[in-house]
Specification:
- The chain is of the alpha+beta class and 645 residues long.
- It has two domains: 189 residues, Penicillin-binding protein 2a (Domain 2), CATH 3.90.1310; 385 residues, Beta-lactamase (3-Layer(aba) Sandwich), CATH 3.40.710.10.
- It is built from 23 helices and 20 strands.
- Strand 11 and strand 12 form a beta hairpin.
- The longest helix is centred in the first third of the chain and has 42 residues.
């Protein structure tokens, strides 16, 4: 009995110790929790309030409105249009595949669209909105909005998208925009945060690319309250961004449209310049392409079609294309000879149709020869032998110096991509690039714009403007509408008597019956033009081809024919406009390029389709028929929308 009482007493003491230990632990845990709660509520309340707010409130970047690009008269060349789109956020969507599948039942989504959206979501942070579809109709965007509860993380939005209303007309100059790529970001030291927005678009070519910083603007921001599934409940705050600045170009949209249509059917380039200011009024490269295709996502088929086109529509031939200038270079050789004092321009050189130099025979284009010619007739009738003689007298160094003085071989600083410098060959250039010494035959070839000499259509227009003005005219593509008078260009300091000879030769090229461009003359007294034809050889007709019966350029495949060139300015008495034309594989300058150059010059002087009265009477019926056909392709005045920029 006593033992039993002792055991019970011992048991009670053990239970009491366990109870105290357990109770102590409970009190300790409760105290710790109480202390932690007190610390969180009193000492750290502000921090956790901020964290809660961050979970409830999202901060979003608002893309800025891109600046406009307009022509000299305010015609819209690049603008913005409303764009209904759908975006998705990965961290709010949950089951991405399920949400995208539901979305595909409401709006047209291809497998490619869905896969691209998946890639963009994985490439970006979970909270970054990714564009799934854009350019949706009002009905489509409404279906998405009405089904919002079944589409977590999906938000319908209205934004702006780039649009080029004149499509092909200014594609090579204005360029186009496209989504920011990894390569774009790698090229920047400190990328603008707005560039991280998926499918945000920046300039990829042309003015859009070169004036990107000015056109882009600065992003705004938006704070929105969201619920537990990421649905936007309300907007709390908005700070509007700074719109991009507008860009005013010197182009005349109507003249640009006319020039491009006049090149229709050719792989060609046309440049029109204001001789006084250097303003580029037209910079047409044909054929062209629709830049809107690139903004909206060009298909593989369409892109392959542009790449495979032998006329190279993606190349801006006006500034990228480098061509032997042919006989349009003869004014350079003639002026170099005058400047060197090796001729007074009046002496006559006999042309038998060829000249033998260092054991090689160099032919004149006129096999029977021109007989005795002076500087003026050598230019108007385009005698090669005369230039061979002058080149040997003055040498390549003088020719190179005059070529540079007239604006050739120079890369002009224009706000467009891929501007080429051409090539003014020198002794040193050949030594460094061809590992051989300069030869007299190289000088003879250069004298008629062949051999190593390469020029761009833009440079030929600059050369023509300088010959017409005796000023160091520089081409200009961007202008300030509020600008005062431009500073006058520096003088070239070419002697007036030299220029009188050159200009007379160019005038007789067009207006004398023996001139190579006589059939392209202008009969309107106040619009008479001066010019120079050129034909640059691409391939020679081989002996095998001659034996097979090939005698003419027309018998060769298109890509083996000569390039056709023409430069001109008008009016002769008071020059205002300079034009250069290059028609790739066009055959002859007088037959192909000169008529185009005349029409574009007249369009520039008359502000539209040239009047028939400017043409010789026997040509007017044909010209009228051509104008009627062309009229169907020209833009109507209502297409030229004026911006208030």
């Amino acid at each position: 009995m006593k033992r039993s009482e002792r055991e019970q007493d011992l048991s009670r003491r053990v239970i009491s110790r366990r109870g105290l230990l357990l109770g102590g632990l409970q009190v300790g845990v409760a105290g710790t929790l109480f202390w932690r709660l007190r610390d969180m509520q009193l000492n750290q309340s502000e921090q956790y309030h901020l964290l809660a707010e961050e979970n409830r409130i999202n901060l979003r970047l608002l893309p800025p409105t891109r600046g406009l690009i307009v022509d000299r008269n305010g015609v819209m060349l690049a603008g913005n249009e409303q764009n209904y789109r759908v975006v998705i956020k990965r961290d709010d969507a949950g089951d991405i595949d399920l949400v995208l599948a539901r979305l595909a039942r409401l709006i047209p989504l291809s497998e490619e669209d869905i896969e691209r959206a998946r890639r963009d979501m994985l490439r970006n942070r979970p909270f970054v909105p990714v564009t799934v579809a854009e350019r949706l109709s009002w009905e489509e965007i409404s279906r998405v909005a009405s089904n919002a509860p079944a589409l977590p993380g999906v938000t319908p939005e209205m934004g702006l998208s780039r649009n080029y209303p004149l499509r092909e007309d200014t594609a090579h100059v204005v360029g186009y925009v496209g989504p920011v790529s990894e390569r774009d970001l790698e090229a920047l030291e400190a990328p603008d945060p707005v560039l991280m927005i998926p499918r945000f678009q920046i300039g990829k070519s042309g003015v859009e690319r070169m004036a990107e910083d000015r056109l882009r603007g600065r992003a705004g921001s938006q704070r929105v309250e969201v619920n537990s599934v990421g649905r936007v409940m309300r907007e709390l705050d908005r700070v509007e961004g700074t719109p991009g600045g507008n860009v005013h170009l010197t182009l005349d949209a109507r003249l640009q449209n006319y020039a491009l249509e006049r090149l229709h059917g050719h792989s060609a380039a046309a440049v029109v310049m204001d001789i006084e200011s250097g303003d580029i009024l037209a910079l047409a490269s044909g054929p062209s392409f629709d830049p809107n295709l690139f903004v909206r996502g060009i298909s593989t088929t369409d892109f392959r079609g542009l790449l495979d086109n032998e006329y190279r529509p993606l190349v801006n031939k006006t500034v990228q294309g480098m061509y032997p200038p042919g006989s349009t270079f003869k004014m350079v050789t003639a002026l170099a000879a005058l400047d060197a004092g090796v001729t007074d321009g009046q002496e006559r050189v006999f042309c038998p149709g060829h000249m033998d130099v260092s054991g090689n025979r160099f032919h004149c284009w006129k096999r029977g020869g021109h007989g005795r010619v002076n500087l003026v007739s050598a230019l108007s009738e385009s005698c090669d032998v005369y230039m061979y003689e002058m080149a040997q007298r003055c040498g390549i160094d003088k020719i190179n110096e005059m070529s540079t003085r007239l604006g050739l071989g120079i890369r002009y600083d224009l706000p467009i991509t891929s501007v080429a410098s051409g090539l003014n060959p020198t002794r040193e250039w050949k030594r460094n690039n061809r590992n051989s010494e300069w030869r007299i035959g190289d000088t003879v070839n250069a004298s008629i714009g062949q051999g190593f000499v390469l020029t761009t259509p833009l440079q030929l227009a600059v050369m023509t403007a300088r010959l017409a003005s005796n000023k160091a005219i520089l081409p200009r593509l961007m202008r300030d509408p509020a600008e005062s008078a431009l500073p006058e260009a520096a003088s070239l300091d070419l002697r007036p008597e030299w220029l009188r000879l050159i200009r007379r030769g160019m005038s007789e090229t067009v207006n004398d019956r023996r001139g190579t461009a006589y059939s392209s003359r202008v009969v309107a007294d106040d619009q008479v033009m001066a010019g120079k034809t050129g034909t640059s050889q691409v391939f020679s007709i081989t002996r095998a081809e001659r034996d097979a019966g090939v005698r003419r350029q027309e018998d060769l495949p298109w890509n083996r024919r000569n390039h056709a060139l023409f430069v001109n300015y008008a009016p002769v008495e008071a020059p205002r406009i300079a034009v250069s034309i290059v028609v790739e594989h066009g055959g002859g300058g007088s037959s192909t390029a000169a008529p185009i150059g005349r029409d574009i010059m007249l369009a520039a002087l008359n502000g539209g389709v040239p009047p028939l009265s400017a043409y010789p009477a026997p040509q007017r019926n044909r010209i009228h028929s051509e104008q009627q056909e062309m009229q169907e392709r020209l833009r109507k005045p209502e297409d030229m929308r004026i911006s208030r920029a």
